[in-house]
Write a structure and sequence with these properties.
alpha/beta; Rossmann fold; Dehydroquinate synthase-like, alpha domain; 2 domains; about 15% strand
């Protein structure tokens, strides 16, 4: 058995089986192909076989990397995720998407590899730094618009369970993101562009929150939603004390160029947008609308 984690994650999973612990670099530095190679080499040196198990303990970076390494080592061995962040418990560890980044974009190399189990203990969230917890709320806010009306009235345990159920239902209907699963990327097109640009002090969930506000403004500018629905987006983000404004110094031209690299951008600039029928994948969003809203934010 191989445990994959990062320094500073104080969560232990005990086992009587022979095991080793493998530490990843901190933060997004772990999401590189060379880290996958190093990790698989460590698995081989440990003597892992196809009958063995990888356990990823940590946030979304850990579960992405541990899951990807498990998917390619011996052409696939079992993996269990133990997410230790709110973002991991409600989103990153659920659904079997794994991957690492390239200089050209986030999560451009990866695999769909379903975990054998995901163990969510909300007690571990009590030790999260406030900003890390709030970052998870950025992903949780997304679920309000995927059928999670009233999430803000639930307890933490109930919120986590509700988000997991929503995501599990979407993934079960579209495991490999052929259609409906893309809705889980609500707010992520701008979020990923801001993260790739890399000059801003934004956690992933904070970037998603800004992306949700942007997507709502774009939908409103296109006449897809009314003032009341736009205001509801703002209310949800404010409930969780999330940012809604573009970071200072954001380069509109660079962001527009990054939009074109988004994995959904097959038929022109493509966004997940709210509308009369709820969230939809909308291809061919006019560049002028996207640029004008960015400029106004």
């Amino acid at each position: 058995m191989a445990f994959v984690t990062q320094p500073g994650i104080d969560v232990e999973v005990k086992t009587d089986l022979p095991s080793a612990v493998h530490f990843l670099p901190d933060g997004e530095e772990a999401k590189q192909l060379r880290v996958i190679e190093d990790l698989c080499s460590a698995f081989a040196q440990q003597g892992l076989t196809r009958q063995d198990l990888v356990v990823g303990i940590g946030g979304g970076v850990v579960t992405d990397v541990a899951g990807f390494a498990a998917s390619v080592y011996h052409r696939g061995i079992q993996v269990i995720h133990v997410p230790t962040t709110l973002l991991g418990q409600i989103d990153a560890a659920i659904g079997g998407k794994t991957g690492v980044n390239l200089p050209e974009g986030k999560n451009l190399v990866g695999a769909f590899w379903q975990p054998s189990a995901v163990l969510c203990d909300t007690d571990v969230l009590a030790s999260l730094p406030e900003r890390e917890f709030r970052s998870g709320m950025g992903e949780l806010a997304k679920y309000h618009f995927l059928g999670g009306d009233g999430l803000d009235a639930l307890s933490l345990d109930q919120r986590v369970a509700a988000c997991i159920q929503i995501k599990a239902d979407i993934v079960a209907a579209d495991e490999r993101e052929g259609a409906g699963r893309a809705l889980l990327n609500y707010g992520h097109t701008l979020a990923h562009a801001l993260e790739i640009e890399g000059r801003f002090d934004l956690r992933h969930g904070e970037a998603v929150a800004v992306g949700i506000q942007y997507a709502a403004l774009v939908a409103h500018a296109m006449g897809r939603i009314d003032e009341a629905k736009l205001a509801e987006h703002g209310r949800v983000l404010d409930v969780y004390e999330l940012p809604r404004a573009l970071p200072e110094g954001c380069d509109v031209d660079q962001v527009m160029a990054l939009f074109a690299r988004d994995k959904k951008a097959i038929n022109g600039l493509t966004f997940v947008l709210d509308g009369p029928n709820g969230l939809e994948v909308v291809p061919g969003v006019p560049e002028k609308v996207l640029r004008d809203v960015l400029t106004q934010m």
